[in-house]
Design brief:
With about 240 residues, this protein is α/β, with parallel strands linked by helices. It folds into two domains: about 10-45 and about 210-240, no CATH class; about 65-200, no CATH class. It has helices at about 10-50, 60-65, 170-175, 210-240; strands spanning about 50-55, 70-75, 80-85, 95-100, 105-115, 135-145, 160-165, 180-185. Strands 2-4-5-8-6 form a five-stranded mixed β-barrel. It is elongated, with a radius of gyration of 26 Å.
Length: about 240
């Protein structure tokens, strides 16, 4: 029996398309993995760096993301915003966001003060918590936003004490009229002088990077491309064998 390869145009075109798609998607997943690896390095550098002191000068969000932050000023007590659907250890609750006026300036920064439980019997009942009076000093970590959850429809304008799915600093600035830095500070240690805000939980979830997941997906797409080539070759020899 003599084996001979028999070229078929339609299987060849289909194989080329599958290989091209697999390589393209594999490369996309590799790029996402590399971006996450770069973010890992940025997180490590941010933790090791000296805390950045906010003095009211406008800053670019990308320049300070994941940096440790120190800032002194006062909370804007009459503009809290509550992010809904933020569970913690199996309990329903909110993230409390509050503008913070930076001392010696008219600039504000949006502070994620912590997590608060929600009343399971009355969904729109606001939790009770304390806010420090006067000038305090906060420490935390700068983030581009306070996290996003799935939201249907158009987000309505923000108002004080609003319960919303998502809110970002620029939206708070627009609806409150406050001058705002374009990033959020996740508050860490209690404010100094300390306020009675023990109700607020500051166990912030780390960013979900998933580098291994993207690398795994890339391998699967590359493997699909390789299998398509093998199938085309093997099938061509089977069709082309002569007796």
């Amino acid at each position: 029996m003599v084996m001979a390869f028999r070229f078929k145009l339609i299987p060849f075109v289909a194989t080329v398309l599958v290989v091209a798609l697999g390589i393209q998607l594999g490369n996309w997943q590799e790029r996402r993995a590399n971006d996450k690896i770069a973010l890992q390095h940025k997180l490590a550098q941010g933790v090791e760096a000296v805390p950045l002191v906010l003095d009211g000068a406008p800053l670019a969000a990308d320049a300070v993301a994941w940096r440790r932050i120190t800032v002194s000023g006062e909370f804007v007590r009459d503009w809290p915003v509550y992010l809904d659907n933020r569970p913690y250890q199996g309990r329903a609750g909110f993230y409390l966001l509050m503008p913070f006026k930076i001392a010696g300036s008219n600039m504000h920064v949006l502070v994620a003060r912590g997590w608060l439980p929600r009343d399971p019997a009355v969904r729109d009942k606001l939790p009770v918590y304390a806010t420090p009076d006067g000038t305090v000093t906060l420490q935390g970590v700068a983030r581009l936003n306070a996290g996003h959850v799935m939201e249907l429809g158009t987000t309505p304008p923000l108002t004080p004490n609003a319960i919303v799915q998502n809110a970002d600093p620029l939206q708070v600035a627009k609806d409150s009229g406050l001058t705002m830095q374009p990033f959020v500070v996740e508050q860490g240690m209690p404010a100094q002088p300390a306020g009675d805000d023990a109700q607020l939980v500051r166990d912030w979830p780390p960013p979900s990077l998933g580098v291994e997941k993207h690398q795994g997906y890339a391998f699967q797409w590359y493997a699909l491309s390789a299998m398509a080539v093998i199938f085309f070759v093997v099938n061509g020899f089977r069709r082309g064998k002569s007796k």
